[in-house]
Amino acid sequence: MQVTETSSEGLKRKLKVVVGADELGERFSAHLDRIKDQVQLKGFRKGKVPLAHIKKVYGRSVMNDVLQETIRETSNKAIVDRKERPAMMPDISLAENAAEIESVVDGKADLAYEMSFEVLPEVALTDFKSLKLERLVVEVDDEQLNKALSDLAERNQSFAAEEGREAGEGDRVTIDFKGTVDGVAFDRGSGENLQLVIGNANFIPGFEEGIKGAKKGDSRDVKATFPAEYPVAELAGKDAVFAITVKEVEKPAKAELNDDFAKGLGTEGLDNLKDIVSAQIKIELDQASRMKLKRELLDALEAAHKFELPPTLVEREFEGIWRQVTEGLQREGKTFADEGKTEEEAKAEYRAIAERRVRLGLVVGEIGDKNKIEVTQDEMRRALIEHARRFPGQEKMVYEYFEKTPGALQELRAPIFEDKVIDFVIELAKPTEKKVSRQELMDSLEKATQA
After folding, report:
1. Is it the case that residue 355 has pLDDT exceeding 70?
2. Same domain, 105 and 182
3. What is the CATH number of the domain that holds 170?
């Protein structure tokens, strides 16, 4: 095998690989030898067909297999011998002349092909101890705890029927209803014994307002309008009329924060409930703080590492982002003008995002490789179980999907690997800590994610 570099420009490489006809002949003979015991032809016992006859019957088919195998093995060897790191699978080009190809298949000419690919750039990692990072710390105070407990009590409030009560904000009503558009009933527009809390139900505009003031036993027609962006196209923007019968009106009774309430939620008492809620708030605050710190770290890593990016990787990333953006606009019936920008401006913006993702992906990968950071089988198993739990009753289908779909497990591995690398760098960078209020943390996080 002879390998010649015919082009080297930036990260792009082009090689010419030549495999001699003699080597192809040896590979061809070896392949025939491997299959001769399995060949069975009429007039011959299995494994007893003469090689000359096998060659006559299967020669061209075998040579085609040999050529594919040879290209796969020699292209890989050429890359390994040159210690290259391809960004993607190489593009293989054979001779376009049909006569040349026929000569190769007939074993009368050398196999020659070109392979084009882009290599990953060398990433010189910065000194992580030099990164200036700040971790925002929020302590759980009485105001946060009392607000969380109050919300918990509100979510677990009870309702009591009151004779002659007119339905109002916060009341729970039970109704039968039948909806029509232009006098015609529509799919899923009717129901019985529907319970809704006025102000919390998020029905289409006009529906809940039309129920206010009604008493048990009242019947009325309620006019409401489906939003223009309603997902059912035939109903979007349409006026509807709902014939409603009120079967019950119940007033809310907010739960009292005491030991009985706490025990009703499965805790030992109010003090235990406070500890649990406080710990949950702390977890949520710590997660928000980590998200802010992670974004700050990724910004710092991007700024500290400047190198040429493989164009194909950037283009592939951009195409994925652009497809999501344009499909989203199409679903919403919007254009880039509605977003206050031209298509060219949007493309420039999203291409910059693609470049950032590719750069950070290469940096994170290099950090992981250099420091032997790996995702364990236990971590992958826990991630798969957690993912499957999001689809109750369909866990088996989820497991089968990841088992049978090439590359699917990488979807689970990638975020775990990234988080382990982030934790590794944060440990070395030793960020300073700054105590802030909950609102300051949330404002800071929102600002960071919008940047």
Report:
1. yes
2. no
3. 3.10.50.40
Taking the model in full, what pTM does it have?
Answer: 0.74
What is the C-alpha separation between 305 and 290, in angstroms, rounded?
22
Q: Out of 253, 283, 314, pick the residue that ends a domain.
A: 253
Between 215 and 56, name the one with better pLDDT.
215
**Does the pLDDT of residue 254 top 90, yes or no?**
no
Q: Is 83 left (phi over 0), alpha (psi -120 to 50) or beta?
A: left
Of 228, 253, 278, the residue at which a domain comes to its end is: 253
Q: Are residues 340 and 382 in the same domain?
A: yes
At 394-431, the pLDDT tens digits run 888 988 998 888 788 888 999 999 999 999 999 999 99
Smallest CA-to-CA distance from 15 within 102, 82, 87 is with: 82
At residue 432, φ and ψ (nearest 5 deg) are: -75, 160
Pure H helices in 242-310: 259-264, 270-304
Look at residue 62 in the predicted model and tell me its pLDDT: 79
Residue 160 DSSP SS3: strand
Please tell me the distance from the alpha carbon of residue 211 to that of residue 285, in angstroms, as a whole number: 39
Q: CA 177 to CA 174: how far, in whole Å?
A: 10
Min mean pLDDT across 63-67, 133-137, 284-288 is at 63-67
What average pLDDT does the chain have?
Answer: 90
pLDDT at residue 267 above 90?
yes
The closest of 155, 157, 164, 192 to 249, measured between CA atoms, is 164
| Rounded Cα gap, residues 200 and 205, in angstroms | 13
Higher pLDDT, 339 or 297: 297
Torsion of CA 227, 233, 238, 244, to 10 degrees: -80
Q: Report the alpha-carbon distance of residue 431 to residue 293 in Å, rounded.
A: 9
- The closest of 173, 215, 233, 224 to 198, measured between CA atoms, is 173
Top pLDDT among 116 and 55 is at 116
Report the distance separating Cα 72 and Cα 118, nearest Å. 17
In a domain, 110, yes or no: yes
Pairing label, strands 12-19, 111-118:
antiparallel
